[in-house]
Amino acid sequence: MQDPTGHASVAAAGQTLALGRGLIAALEGPSEPERYSEAQAQAMQDAAPSIARAALAIVLVYIAAQLWIRPAQFWAAWPAYAAEVFAASLVLVGTSVSRWRRYAEAWFVAGDFIFSSALTLQLVSPETALGGVAGFTSVKMLATALFVPWRARRQYLSVAYTLALYGLALMLAPHFPEEPKKVHLVALPVIAAFLSALGTVRAARLRRTLLEETFKREAAVMRLQRVLDRMPVGCVISDANLRYQYWNRAAENIFGYKMEEVLGKSAVDVITPSHLRDLSVRGFEELAREDHVLGPMRLENVTKDGRTIVCEWSAVGLHNPDGSFGGMLSMCQDVTEKHRDEQARRELIAQLEESDRIRAAFVATLSHELRSPINVILGYHDLLMEGVFGPVSRAQQDVIERIGQAARQVLELVTSTLEVSRVQAGRTPVNLQLIYPRALLEQVRSETLEIQDKEGVRVEWRIPEGLPPVYTDAAKVKVIVKNLLSNALKYTEQGVVEIQAVEARRGVEIRVSDTGYGIPADALPHVFEPFRQFHTQTGSGGAGLGLYLVRLFADLIGAQLTVQSEVGKGSTFTVWIPLQPPGTVVQP
Q1: Residue 51: count of CB within 10 angstroms of its CB
Q2: How is residue 315 annotated by DSSP?
Q3: With helix as H, strand as E and coil as C, how does 213-262 read?
Q4: pTM of the model
Q5: Number of H helices, E strands in the chain
Q6: Which among 321, 250, 323, 237 has a CA at the least distance from the CA of 284?
Q7: C-alpha atoms less than 13 angstroms from C-alpha of 18 in its C-beta half-sphere
Q8: Which of 48, 450, 463, 512 could cross-link to 484 by cystine, CB 3.0-4.6 Å?
């Protein structure tokens, strides 16, 4: 069933918006007294025809009753009755013609003058019942105070004129001296005049208060409409029956329809494609059941010229004071171009990810296939150097050693490439365990004795007792330290390479320092990027993946890398390992 309360509420809101548009000049132009005067004149135009019809009906009923009950009294004062009918008819005709309606108050004053004159002058007729005229006069003065929205001074003048003419006619009435209840004939109209004056004051204050509240409400509505009309997003209001009640300028620009073209039309028929209408109806029903914001969501819409666009919508239900669903306020913006760009970007990203996956798989496969023959070469190198196949001359040893050195460089490159591809492909697990840094570094020291034996370079290990245990991946920490040590030895021809560990910032810092070539200042931001080499003149070889792998492994275990360097004085690489990575809990 439809909700008549909600429908009426939203419909009234739509009518108020339309009324506010017409009153904007009045709200900002004339002063408050002028607005009150204009509003009162309008109220008079609206009320005068119905009051005249009611007065005419009452007079005709009274005349019919007089003809039925006391025909002699009617025929004795028929000109007065005719004047009363003429007065009511004059007001009715004058306020029913459109070009005369602006003079509604003047028509009513004229009709009131004629009616009051005819009513009170009936007292001069000897057949007239004085009590009846007194009662009608009293009722007339009270009725105009309560039901006629004219100026207060008009009511005061009407009462004064009616009371004065009534008193004069009463004194001229031939049968007034014989009337036994004279006090009632005088007191009743006087009391009615007094009450009429009080009622006029009260009614005038009430009307002014209501009009002031109306002005404030209309001004607030107009301010709201101005804000909505100037919003860069479309604003649409629908009632409880899914029919449009408001449509701002941005919505006009988006969909091509003027507000007048869509008012009262179904919200699921104008701009909604046929295949999305059921979804729109379900959205309305959801907002009717629950008080929440729906969206943002992207939907296809159809414009006036038949184009299909993509709009991003957000909607909220409008509820009446009694809690019933009254409609929906929707905001939208045209995101067609943005949607196309995002879709193209997603497709491109998917293609790049697929290409990267294929590349990583190819590199991993290639690296794996290369390691086997390189290991075979190194195996035969060792056998040749040991003389398994016979004695080797000094010159042959130099050649074989160069072969072994080249094979080891290729193996290092292949191993680093394989590790990098595994990390990038997300196939490198992190095995967290509680380790002691001193014991770990001692293992690294014993495992790198061969590369530490470099002529002209002294390697110093400064590992104090009492370093706190850390919860991390031991294998990756060892790779990080080995690569930093290898890098330091590679670029240091004479001097010292120092490995130091200290407790710092709720973790352990491992510093690898050297007195080698150093790194230029402009190259420091790029030292951890892949395939970067800053000392190619040394002939040390390598593909520039060692420090890149260090950075990847540090990111995996939640460590931080920093580097300080000065050309000609050496470099210091620092890796800070937290007591435990963020988001983890140390296991017993």
Answers
A1: 21
A2: E
A3: HHHHHHHHHHHHHHHHHCCCCEEEEEECCCEEEEECHHHHHHHCCCHHHH
A4: 0.41
A5: 17, 12
A6: 237
A7: 12
A8: 512
